[in-house]
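Lab notebook, bench 4. Still working through the backlog of constructs that have no structural model yet. Next entry is a single chain of 528 residues. Request: give me the structure tokens for it.
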Amino acid sequence: MVKTNRITSILMAGCACAALSACGADDIASPGEGTIVLPAPTPTPTPGTPTPTPGVVTPAANCPSIAGSDQLTDLGTISNGTSTWRNCGFPARFNSSTAIAKVAGVIYSMPGRVDVGTDQGAASTNTAVTLSIDPGVVIFAGTGNTFLAVNRGNKINAVGTASQPIIFTSRENVLGTATDQSSGQWGGVVLLGRAKITDCLAPAAAAGTTACERDTEGASNALYGGANDADSSGRMSYVQIRYSGFVLSGSSELQGLTPSGVGTGTQLDHIQVHNSSDDGIEIFGGSVHPRYLVLTGNEDDNLDTDVGFRGTVQYLLSVQREGNNIGDSFLETDSNGGSASNNGEDVLPRQYLKVANFTAINRSTTGSNGSAMLLRGGADLTLVNGLIVSPTQTCLRIDSATTVRDADTALQDAGKPRYISVSMQCLPATPYKGNNGVTAAVVQSIFEAGPNSTISYTPSLTSLFINGATETARPATDPKTIDAAFTTTNYVGAVKDSNDTWYAGWTCNSVTASFGSASGNCTAIPTT
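Model written out:
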């Protein structure tokens, strides 16, 4: 969740880019030698037809037509000084199902908030509109309150490939002015579902029912919540979300990706969120099971879960930004008590987050949570097969006595948090913290009760996040014995070894982390 002491930092970081109205590895060709022979081209180009320059985009003559009554708007061209694209603007709302195709010389843009369908309501069961996006499509957003909202009862089908990811990014990124320290240049992607949540807008509404709904972090009429934990908001696979995060109001910000009340019918995998000015991903309620997440350079928490989320996450790589001491926790797991009957710490559904096969590289010492992981309120947590590298910061902080009490079936309380086959490198002086009735000694005893878990971990990771000899020697636990939604693994961490390359190609590289030569740079827009 957003931290108010960061808002000032975000504004200060963005002042250098005020004139732009924004806040916020490899291959060099060598010339040959000897006699130059210029053979006749085969076939000979038609006179007047220019020969394309490799790596340079020339704009399409016009925008493509799409299905439905809501057409694209030709907004002219946009250029970074080398490549130029035809800028095809999305409508403010897609009222019928359509597909966005990858077309040479075309880039797509969101001029403001863009809705997929209209809200079908918490009790609905239909699918009204599906927005499909082809592999390799690039969509950029103007600065400010610009985000994609997939409303309840509608779907997104954004499915890229390992070599052709779909990219959501900022106008500055297209213009070539975004840097490895840029952030907060647009809103992000918001998925709005009909699964169970708590903390209802209506004070008397019963949590986990169709009467319980919420608005999105201060957004106007971006409602989510219902009673269908199997609900589907569609699929997002092989997707990058760059330079997002926007202050909506007060202490409310949009993240890179915000699944809200999203059910198990939704598929989220192979998603990178890079340099969000708030959280990388914040999940509000629901029961989705994300897989293969890469969260890099985000300025608040990399994964934040709230309001009754009950789901699993597997294969998670979290890396805080290099160089600027930016970022808060790797995990923030919340269920804070409120004064209404539907938002207390024991309101059902009780949040229960389970994470397997994760590697977290924490570099910041200035986050307001003061720890790599914060667990608080009436939330349950199980971590299995994990690596935490946080040598200059507390690893684990637990707030609230309701978080550490024994199991209670009537309250869906799974009991004390569990850390199974988790290895941590922490600030030696204060590896654990506790608050609100929980002492550091209690936190320590809970962690040390976990089988195969240790705080005496000295990393041997290669290329920042790939398991080395030390990690390979650590005993692992089959995550499937923890939750049937997990797949079986026999190693700790997110990346087993140098042969395990699930992260390569569809991600982007930055000063924060490099994912190899198959991945492009986050500051660049693909030209093929």
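Notes after review: The longest helix spans residues 4-14. Residues 2-50 have pLDDT under 50 and may be disordered. Flag for follow-up if needed.
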